[in-house]
Amino acid sequence: MMNTLLIESITVDTVMSGDSLRKELYQRVQQDSTLFDFLQQGSLDGLWYWDVEHPKDEWLSPEFKSLFGYTDSEVPNTSDWWQKNIHPDDLKDVLRNFELHLKDPNHPYDQVVRYRHKDGRTIWVRCRGIAIRDKNNRPIRMLGAHVDVTALKNAEIALAEANRQLKRSARNLLRERDNLKRSNEVLERFAYVASHDFKQPLRTIASFAELLGRKLEGSNDPEIREFLNYIQSGTKQLQEMIDGLLEHSRISRGAPVMTETDLNDVMKEVRECLDTLVKDKDATLEICKLPVIHCDKKQMRRLLQNLVQNAIINSGEQSPHVRVSADVNDVNMILNVDDDGHGVPVEKREEIFHMFKSLEKGSSGTGIGLTICETIVHRHGGRIWVEDSDLGGASFRVQLPLPDSNEETSPGTEFEGQTTKKAKQDKGDHRNPKLH
């Protein structure tokens, strides 16, 4: 409840200016101490009034004492109390500023200091004061005020610590990035050089195996023929692995050459390249209408060729059905390569993108094709993953950002809350159920 203030009438001008209002307020505060109490209780966290001529005598307001957890009767009105409870390091600055302010009124007595609360915690206070001087300009009193800035100071300290941790983390990340970059460069150089160095002895083995085969053409020993077949097939597989390593190294080292690319044209080239495999496997290759995107055309052709070839090769004994389609919205494009094969077990859906990892032991693949796919996709700012397909097998999905899009989405929720459109099938140029 607010106390009613009984104030004596003061003669003032009919129209009050700002300066006359200030003077009126001074007069009213002089006449009624209730106004002074209201101002210091409502605007500050404590007042102090120090007798400079008798330094041990100092009035500390009840609010001053309450700020540090004490009642008015618990703290004596002396300067000794606050000098014992202020932080020792801050006391030195306070006393130095006090002396400077007494000598020179233009030197401000204004600082943020630490006090010890009754419960042991630290209270941060902004302490300001002004010297009151006699007619000879000699300081005789000091009036001061406290404002609790603990919350602000704690936030400032927490922010500074967070910034320090952030800088440490940034430095660590930069070091890790540089180390990783150096390691990758070393690995890429090794893979490239080693692959080149391996080619020559491999060609020698292949040449001598061919000569040996010609020499033994008339041999009736089936065991020798079997051993020779092992040498030739192993040499061929190792050659394919080396070629894959070289291609992966080239893709990793070179930046994509981005152009507007019609994926329908790319799939025509892929279809022609895989024509023999499609016929040998009696495969159905269903190609839906695909969009025009911004990409490296050569790398996109390799990506689609690897995915389609992988789907056909891993179909088992059955005649495979492979479908290539796309989903497009304003942010992303999703390429889908679905098949009706055996699918990919959940526990192997990340492992299959690792170098030299094949889904099945004894596979005729090199174990590099899907690694190359992942590298191409990452260098285009996208992601690749595998899910179950509605055809019954695996669905390899490639998410690529559209131009001027920086958004990333997670597998499985990439179009949540967005309007999507399934690329329409074109039964004319872009769909051919049987390619043989």
Number of helices: 11
Which value, in Å, is the CA radius of gyration?
Answer: 42 Å
Task: Count every beta strand, where a strand is a DSSP E run of 2 or more residues.
Answer: 13
Main sheet properties: 6 strands, mixed
Share of β-strand residues: 15-25%
Shape: elongated
Tell me the structural class: alpha+beta
Write the element-wise H/E pattern from the N-terminal end onward. Answer: HHEEHHHEEEHHEHHEEHEEHEEE
Task: Report the mean per-residue pLDDT as an integer.
Answer: 80
Question: Short summary of the structure?
Answer:
Helices cover 45% and strands 19% of the residues.
Structure, explained:
Helix content is 45%, strand content 19%. The protein is built from 11 helices and 13 strands. The chain has helices spanning 18-31, 33-43, 62-67, 79-85, 88-103, 150-215, 222-253, 263-273, 275-281, 297-313, 369-379, and strands at 47-51, 58-60, 109-116, 122-133, 139-148, 258-262, 284-287, 292-296, 321-328, 332-339, 383-388, 394-401, 421-422. Strands 7, 9, 10, 11, 12 and 13 form a 6-stranded mixed β-sheet that branches. Strands 2-1-5-4-3 form a 5-stranded antiparallel β-sheet, sandwiched between helices. A two-stranded antiparallel sheet has the order 6-8. Strand 4 (122-133) and strand 5 (139-148) form a beta hairpin. Helix 6 (150-215) packs antiparallel against helix 7, helix 7 packs parallel to helix 11 (369-379) and helix 8 (263-273) crosses helix 10.
